[in-house]
Amino acid sequence: MYKYLGEQLELPNMETRKCKICGELKDLSYFALAGKVKGVEYRRHLCVPCYSISKKPRKEKIKTEYIEWKKTLCCEKCGYNDYRALQFHHCNNDKEHNVSDMLRTGHTLDKIKQEALKCMVLCANCHQIEHYHGV
Question: What is the domain extent for residue 88?
């Protein structure tokens, strides 16, 4: 028997955990790795589905702020300013991340802007032309 938050639970082995949101007892593989310190693995207290849901409001807020910031930009070559067609072109070899991937994975807006400042802002057409090498 195993006592967890006052409940008596029958556990087949010590490789299970109870999610703090949904309350379900799940195999430890359902809990993402939070870190490793001195060889000891630490796992999140929320199962992967609950953890993803808990992050959604934060990601939506970052995306909204990102779009508002992107609306202030325009293509550095032709001046086109529809934010939906603006892209970030890394000119130097100092690219750490793809800006759109950073947005998708939940980086902070400050980190996203920091990466975007390394880039030229180009509309989709100018960006295609920039990468065109001729055939």
Answer: 56-131
